[in-house]
Amino acid sequence: MKLDTAPIAAIATASGRGGVGIVRISGKNLDGFIMDFFKGSHISLPMKPRFAYFVPFNDAEGNKIDEGLALFFKGPHSYSGEDTLELQGHGGTIVMQMLLKRCLEAGASIGMRLAEPGEFTRRAFLNNRIDLTQAEAIADLIDATTEEAVRSATRSMSGEFSKQIQSVAAETANLRMLIEATMDFPEEDTDFLAKEKPAERIEGLLASLDHILGQAAQGVLLRDGIHVVLAGQTNVGKSSLFNSLTGTNTAIVTPIAGTTRDKITESLQLEGIPITLTDTAGIREASEADEVEKIGIGRTWDEIGKADIILHLLDASIGPTREDEQTFNSFPENIPVIQVWNKIDLSGHKPSLDHIMGTTQVYLSTVTGEGLDLLKEAVLEAAGWVKTGESTCLARERHLTAIRDAGNHLAAAAEQAKNGENLELLAEELRLAQNALNSITGEFTSDDLLGKIFSQFCIGK
Ligand SMILES: Nc1nc2c(ncn2[C@@H]2O[C@H](COP(=O)(O)OP(=O)(O)OP(=O)(O)O)[C@@H](O)[C@H]2O)c(=O)[nH]1
Ligand SMILES: [Mg+2]
């Protein structure tokens, strides 16, 4: 990513047909551009901020490309914190490209260039308009695939998540300053430890952090979703369950063993968590399967290896078979498995959800629909979804790592505080905890990480 402060321009709306298309321009001073781009029109310097000018958008020779609205935002009161201009024209791919090209031409004298992905938002971050979690939340809002993810992203975007982190970071900093002050007056050590009760205060911080971690883990689920794979022997009803859960008729269902040959994936959501569900070819002995099916079974195992949760389908009207057991034993050990006993309309079992010796078992029927809700419950539970009734903030894996890191340092600090021996080590652990928390909001963040975060944005944001 280029790190210069040259003025930048990009098409901010999605490519394709649309009523309106927007070219967005940002720079420390856009006067040179404005003079050239709007020459011959009624716009003159300085442009009135937040005022909609209706103007022609002309090419260099004065021929009209389009007409529309020009909106000017004076920095720092703009998205990026710099002077910003938005040109709203008609949303066609070519007309937008022509308008962008003309902007770059008119901006050449002030060094304007095409914006990189996320560069407007990166500037907003660098100009302290938003912190890093807020910037991430903007990208997550754009990418959100469920309403719950949108609501959580909005909460993070308005700074709720940052506020929680900052409050723990500030309290950690206070405590550290107290300890460092005490270190300068060693004779007051014992007095300090008795009066300020640092161990208790750190325990309080750890409890807050634990709560934030629980909430953030839910936020990560809402953002990243989970990948659920249906697996089992042939004819147990995997494709039937796939259709029931997705509410589609995507997968072919027949009484013939070996109907599904290839994997099929669809998206759905459970309580706002995006789920990708994959149906696979039934597993059976190579001798029973033809060439195509063998390839399909190979793919089944590939999919199983990539799952967050495996739904192992079994036929309740037949009961456990040797093959079922072999398949179960071949699942990767680190992936949670839910045993799903299907066809209870034939077997006479009641729909149920049980945890038996560490294994989750669900009894259901895809024909009558009984037990499907229990399966959804089991999937959410296996994913770690907890219904707290609290509003969730969208979060990323990066945040969880940093929160855990801060927690480890606080735990080490608590140990030091209890022993009361080494104030220097105590202060150091608090400093490290503080740094980990600050990396979340971006106060101490490497350029590499910033580059990685902003490059995942779309162009024009
Ligand atoms: N009675 C009853 N029949 C079911 C149920 N679920 C599926 N079936 C029937 O079982 C047969 C196999 O269903 P599929 O969904 O194709 O099974 P599959 O596991 O995808 O099979 P393969 O693709 O061959 O691996 C079909 O005839 C379904 O109608 C159920 O809950 N009850
Ligand atoms: Mg099938």
What is the topological layout?
Blueprint: E1 8-11, E2 18-27, H1 31-37, E3 52-58, E4 64-73, E5 83-91, H2 93-106, E6 113-114, H3 119-126, H4 132-143, H5 147-157, H6 160-184, H7 189-196, H8 198-224, E7 226-232, H9 238-246, E8 264-270, E9 273-279, H10 291-306, E10 309-315, H11 322-330, E11 337-342, H12 344-347, E12 352-356, E13 359-363, H13 372-383, H14 397-419, H15 423-441, H16 447-455
Parallel strand pairs: 1-6, 7-9, 7-10, 10-11, 11-13
Antiparallel strand pairs: 1-2, 2-5, 3-4, 4-5, 8-9, 12-13
The structure holds guanosine-5'-triphosphate (GTP) and magnesium ion.
How would you characterize this protein structure?
It contains 16 helices and 13 strands. With 461 residues, it is α/β, with parallel strands linked by helices. The chain folds into 3 domains: 124 residues, Probable tRNA modification gtpase trme, domain 1 (Gyrase A, domain 2), CATH 3.30.1360; 131 residues, Up-down Bundle (Four Helix Bundle (Hemerythrin (Met), subunit A)), CATH 1.20.120; 159 residues, Rossmann fold. A hairpin with a 2-residue loop joins strand 12 and strand 13. It binds guanosine-5'-triphosphate and magnesium ion. The site of guanosine-5'-triphosphate has 22 residues, from helix 9 and helix 12.
Separation of termini?
15 Å
What's the story with the biggest beta sheet?
A: 7 strands, mixed
Q: What is the count of helical runs?
A: 16
The kinds of small molecule bound in this structure are: guanosine-5'-triphosphate, magnesium ion
Radius of gyration: 29 Å
Strand ordering within the main sheet? 8-9-7-10-11-13-12
Principal-axis shape:
flat
Portion of residues in helices? Answer: 40-55%
- The unreliable regions are none
CATH superfamily label of the largest domain: P-loop containing nucleotide triphosphate hydrolases
Q: Tell me the count of domains.
A: 3
Main structural class: alpha/beta
Order of helices and strands: EEHEEEHEHHHHHHEHEEHEHEHEEHHHH
CATH class of the largest domain: Alpha Beta
Our estimate of the beta-strand percent is 15-25%
Average per-residue pLDDT, rounded, comes to 93
CATH architecture of the largest domain: 3-Layer(aba) Sandwich
